[in-house]
Specification:
Blueprint: E1 3-5, E2 9-13, E3 20-24, E4 30-33, E5 41-45, E6 50-53, E7 60-67, E8 70-76, E9 91-99, E10 102-110, E11 117-121, E12 128-129, E13 136-140, E14 146-149, E15 156-161, E16 172-177, E17 182-187, E18 193-199, E19 208-213, E20 224-231, H1 236-249, H2 256-262, E21 274-278, E22 280-282, E23 292-294, H3 297-311, E24 318-322, H4 345-357, E25 362-368, E26 371-373, E27 403-405, H5 411-424, E28 431-435, H6 454-470, E29 474-477, E30 490-491, E31 512-513, H7 516-521, E32 529-530, E33 539-542, E34 545-547, H8 553-560, E35 564-566, H9 578-590, H10 592-601, E36 606-611, E37 618-623, E38 628-632, E39 637-642, E40 645-650
Length: 651
């Protein structure tokens, strides 16, 4: 069996199965790879079915040793029955290399131009089991983050895609024993990465995670790489910092201080509330042709001023403008202009902007270049996403009715068109909230006129976001997929307590929620907490995907140092009496501790984090400037330390 080692770890590889065992020489822990999996290589012939194989089923294996710390295997000759002439000569090259406390595994296609068949995907390397009888947790960047007990009785084998906002928002995971021994796995080829979580019945080895390398436009076309770092003794924050160091090497870590130095408007994201004002909804596509709910821009400004005055908001805040477009919210994308005449058209929109700016607040427009509505002129160009099956799948979920999804490679031209016309009309705003991009998956497009890999989509959306940066604007999007961190200043939120829809109704929680996302990215991205005026309301993200608000969102905001984002009743359509304004203003004012604390710590990295109770109901965060937030979700209480000042309170 090939063996490669450093002073920290010794790696043994089975020369038939490619099962791997890693001995940590510092603490004696042995991490063994699972011997089973859904397929080390997936193959599909031009006239045959998809079929997966394990490495032990390969007819040929050739091993080489490029260096004392590296070994490489070429595997081929799987008996794919649909290839009637002979076993396939193509296969995979699997390379192993150790350095210090790290093991890197690369999986690359080998002679893939041979035969009328294709390599599709791979589930290798398989997951590492926790050492011996160790108790421990999976550390998962699933939405805001969670600790999943390795012996949790989920009895599920699920594959979840990477870069989905209510899902894996960062391309890594950790495994931590209760005595501190740990590993982290991260990839520098994350665009086509998925995650297989195998959680068998308790007592049968416990849960594992390993990569699923998805096809790129139908095939396994480039080398995939994952690195495991092994820790003698580490906490959760140590794992977060390890991933952050990796991300910095990839050029992702641009701090908020750097962003604010280039674009001073970024400062408005901290130290004040994010107030959402909804102007117009049209329901004609849902059989209600006469139903159009709206308030005019002038009325929205009046309400905004009144609420800020009653709540004594002060000169720092962000106004998020929804439903300002022609026919209102989510109706005519990707061609939102002009602003609807019923709301006040160009003059009204300009007056809204100037009136809010006079309060000292910044103003951003909610826009969208993913939904591609079939009734728009843009649809005549047929630039929607084509799926693998050759169909341009459609939806009728939103107010604009029948739609497809706009190919990512076509998005920026429509965004530029909107930006240019706003500027020509003296209606440029302080920034954009560009919906969907940082919460949806990286969409592929199979249309031969504008094909897009997931990597091409990441590049196209990044360049579109960067265009707004180049205009000096604030840029936000819907969630925290961290490919966007270099070109995004804030997000709507990154939800805690998220549960995969395939587990909905079967579990009360997906592990213990922790502020893992902010442990990594707090000093680079403003992550508000969306706070419902009704604290018992559930956040329905998509059909079948419900994020139960089991813990107070205000306490989450304090714990991770984010500002409050909200929309009250009087910030929406409807007639409201003086009492409603007073109640809404009181609700806004009650969030002052949250937005003031975000102003104190918003530029700071997380320096320490502690779980104060086993069930996660009490947690504490310490920021790099020494300020602290300690929350108790069970009691609804908080304790804050700001410099020498200490504050206690409850919601």
């Amino acid at each position: 069996m090939p063996v490669i080692k450093t002073d920290a770890i010794e790696v043994t590889i089975d020369d038939t199965t490619l099962d791997v065992a890693v001995r940590d020489l510092r603490n004696g822990k042995l991490w063994r790879m699972s011997p089973e999996g859904p397929g080390d290589i997936g193959i599909k012939g031009h006239c045959g079915p998809y079929q997966s194989f394990l490495f032990r089923e390969a007819a040929r294996r050739e091993w080489t040793h490029p260096s004392p710390t590296a070994v490489r295997a070429e595997l081929s000759g799987w008996s794919y029955t649909a290839n009637v002439w002979s076993p396939l000569s193509f296969g995979l090259e699997v390379a192993f290399e150790v350095r210090d406390d790290r093991l890197t595994v690369k999986v690359a296609p080998l002679r893939q131009d041979s035969h009328e068949a294709s390599i599709i995907d791979s589930f290798y390397p398989r997951g590492f089991h926790f050492p011996g009888k160790s108790r421990g947790d999976l550390v998962l960047p699933y939405s805001q983050g969670c600790l999943l007990d390795k012996d949790a009785p989920l009895a599920r084998d699920i594959v979840l895609p990477g870069y989905v906002g209510v899902g894996f928002v960062m391309p890594w995971w950790g495994q931590r024993c209760r005595d501190g021994a740990a590993l982290i796995a991260y990839s520098d080829t994350p665009n086509d990465l998925g995650f297989r979580i195998q959680a068998p019945v308790a007592g049968r080895g416990g849960a594992t995670v390993h990569p699923y390398w998805q096809a790129s436009l139908g095939g396994f076309k480039y080398a995939r790489s994952i690195t495991y770092t092994f820790f003698e003794n580490a906490g959760v924050l140590d794992l977060a910092r390890a991933y952050r160091r990796h991300a910095e090497l990839q050029g992702q870590a641009i701090t908020l201080r750097d962003k604010a130095a280039e674009r001073p408007a970024v400062e408005s994201l901290l130290g004040g509330p994010h107030l959402h004002v909804w102007f117009m909804s049209t329901f004609s596509r849902f059989g209600a042709s006469s139903r159009v709910n709206y308030i005019r821009f002038a009325e929205g400004l009046r309400r905004y001023r009144k609420l800020c005055d009653l709540a004594q908001v002060g000169p720092r805040g962000l106004a998020h403008i929804d439903g300002w477009c022609r026919d209102g919210y989510d109706f005519n994308h990707p061609e939102p202009l002009p602003p609807d005449i019923r709301l006040g058209s160009w003059d009204g929109l300009r007056g809204l902007r100037d009136g809010i700016r006079a309060l000292g607040h910044r103003v951003v427009l909610h826009d969208n270049y993913v939904d591609y509505y079939k009734h728009t002129d843009a649809y005549k160009l047929d630039e929607g996403v084509m799926n693998l099956d050759g169909i341009k799948h459609a939806s009728t979920e939103w107010l604009g009715g029948p739609q497809e999804w706009l190919c990512s490679t076509r998005a920026e031209k429509y965004l530029r068109r909107t930006c240019n016309e706003l500027a020509e009309r003296d209606c440029a705003f302080d920034g954009f909230y560009l919906d969907c991009w940082s919460i949806g998956h990286l969409r592929e497009c199979y249309d031969p006129r504008h094909p897009a890999t997931r990597g091409a989509t990441r590049k196209a959306w990044s360049e579109a976001l960067a265009h707004c940066h180049n205009l000096g604007q604030i840029v936000g999007s819907e969630s925290g997929n961290d490919w966007a961190v270099p070109v995004m200043d804030y997000c709507h939120t990154v939800q805690p307590d998220a549960i995969p829809h395939c587990l909905a109704g079967t579990v009360e929680a997906f592990g213990v929620s922790i502020p893992l996302y902010n442990m990594v990215w707090h000093d680079c991205l403003v992550c508000p907490s969306w706070i419902n005026q009704n604290p018992k309301a559930r956040a329905v993200v998509k059909e079948g995907m419900v994020v139960p608000q089991t813990k107070d969102a205000r306490l989450w905001a304090l714990l991770w140092g984010g500002p409050p984002a909200l929309r009250t009743r009087t910030m929406d359509w409807g007639r409201h009496d003086a009492r409603t304004y007073e109640e809404d203003a009181a609700f806004i004012a009650s969030l002052r501790p949250v937005w003031e604390f975000s102003g104190a710590v918003g530029y700071e990295a997380v320096a320490d984090w502690t779980m104060l109770s086993d069930n996660g109901m009490a947690q504490r965060t310490v920021f790099a400037n020494g300020d602290e937030a300690e929350v108790d979700f069970g009691r609804g209480t908080y304790r804050l330390k700001r410099g020498r000042k200490r504050v206690s309170g409850a919601f």
